[in-house]
Prior knowledge:
This protein is α+β, with helices and mostly antiparallel strands. The chain has a single domain, classed as Sandwich (Jelly Rolls), CATH 2.60.120. It contains 3 helices and 10 strands.
Amino acid sequence: MFKRSRYFTIPSSPSLTDMAHYQQLIKIQTTGKSLSKITSKVQSIVAESGINTGLCTIFLRHTSASLLIQENADPDVLKDLSNFFAKLVPEDGKSYIHDAEGPDDMPAHIRTALTKTSEQIPIAYGKLLLGTWQGIYIWEHRHHSHYREIVVHITGD
């Protein structure tokens, strides 16, 4: 049996509370200010979960790095993004009050505030429904390498 929604048709059974949940924490070591592709790591967790249809939520547990879904084919896109943010949020050492952790810390917080620390990606047939040219990246905004923790939470059936 199906319930009619204003926008789409959803099955009335099983209920949403009967959906399976799978969660894993991964640690990624960044190489300093850069974008690191993590698509395959997230996809392997989705496959491990055994969930065929659902939603994958990824959450970065930090305030000076971001998560990003972006083009994965042309590395110039990532360079242009980095260059744009370098101009938008300068690291001149005199524009910010907060500098307790160094001159790159407050600009890193601002870059994170302008981007995201979480993403949601639909799952079908046990795979992330990313577009052909989309990849998942952790964007390290600090100059030095850090270990970053990402929670991958998968819901579905």
